[in-house]
Amino acid sequence: MSPLDGSPHVVSGSGAGVNEVPLLQVEDLSVRFGAVTAVSSVSFSVSKGEVFGVVGESGAGKSATARGIIGLLPSTARIGGSVRFKGEELIGASRTRLRRARGSEIGYVFQDALTALDPVRTIGAQLVEVLQVHRSVRKKEALEAAAELLAELQIADPARTLNAYPHQLSGGMRQRAVIAAALIADPELIIADEVTSALDVTVQRKVLDLLLGVCAARGAGVIMITHDLGVVAQTCDRVAVLYGGIVAEQADVYSLFDRPMHPYTGALLQSMPRIGDTSEFKPIPGSAIQIFGDLRFCPFAERCARAGADCRRAVPPESTRGNTVFRCFHPLDVPQ
Ligand SMILES: Nc1ncnc2c1ncn2[C@@H]1O[C@H](COP(=O)(O)OP(=O)(O)OP(=O)(O)O)[C@@H](O)[C@H]1O
Ligand SMILES: [Mg+2]
């Protein structure tokens, strides 16, 4: 499934087909926390059945983007732009509408998911509650649905797990219970925010495969948020690379890995350890940026070897090469 090992994964050049309303269309999204601008002018779309990656370093604006999509930002945050789910605008929608969307239409696996479970209630009670908020089902049916989903997530003894408290489960099992809570009401879009980063490397891949397997079986779209390009390579169809709250580059995974355009993408790829590659591992020099007020320059300029005075004077507009859209005045395909 990886562009690194050459085996094919579903690839489409753009989110939806001609005349097809995408499952999710994000346009010009911005999120501010007081003076801090977490997200500026982010646009992308996700189709049914597609796995869309959002990748970037800590502080890039990944979670703020995801929380903005489902209206889960603190009341002090300011959000702008447009988020349409199956054509319906969610920005400015009522709290009731957004509450209904969360869980039953858009499932969200939080970045700090392992602490999201209530420690004093059984997994079964928590899953039943999620389902009953969205569907009029009796407790017995809800428990049956929960057991079926846990079995689908390859939990060996679903009945026992349903009766267990979170602390009685291993990290990998707890993460599967959290994923089950996001999936149980059968949402059409799943936002998975760093779902495996708290897990042991050996179980990370397994949990990702299980999550994506269930989503694929249901034809759900997935937004896979990660700081790990390896996860992107293994799981995503298309990807947006975030830096300083903007989409630095967006492409299908093959184009991104074969022909990165943005120097930040290039640097991320070089900082990625690869099996069998003995060349030096190159961390990106400098540290991530925090943006205050309106963004008026390329956020990567201060860490970029290719940056010129133009990069410090304006945000680069979107440029296109094939399936790739990027914001850079000095892309990697132009010799310097
Ligand atoms: N509630 C908040 N109040 C103030 N600033 C915030 C808040 N949440 C996020 N930020 C700021 O917004 C920016 C983007 O944060 P965000 O959490 O979206 O990053 P991220 O890409 O998800 O990072 P990580 O990989 O660490 O999860 C950062 O500069 C962060 O400090
Ligand atoms: Mg985050």
**CATH-level-4 superfamily name of the largest domain:** P-loop containing nucleotide triphosphate hydrolases
Number-wise, the strands total 13
Q: Write down the domain tally.
A: 2
| Spans where pLDDT lies below 50 across 5 or more residues | 1-15
- H/I helix tally: 11
Average per-residue pLDDT, rounded, comes to 89
Amino-to-carboxy terminus distance: 34 Å
CATH topology of the largest domain: Rossmann fold
Cα radius of gyration in angstroms: 20 Å
Small ligands present:
adenosine-5'-triphosphate, magnesium ion
Topology of this structure?
Blueprint (H helix, E strand, L loop, with lengths): L23 E10 L2 E11 L4 E5 L6 H8 L7 E9 L2 E2 L5 H10 L1 E4 L3 H4 L6 H12 L4 H14 L5 H5 L8 H13 L5 E5 L7 H18 L2 E6 L2 H7 L2 E6 L2 E7 H6 L4 H8 L20 E2 L26 E3 L2 E3 L10
Parallel strand pairs: 3-8, 3-9, 6-7, 7-8
Antiparallel strand pairs: 1-2, 1-4, 2-11, 4-5, 9-10, 10-13, 12-13
Helix pairs in contact: 4-5, 4-7, 7-8
Adenosine-5'-triphosphate (ATP) binds next to strand 2 and helix 1.
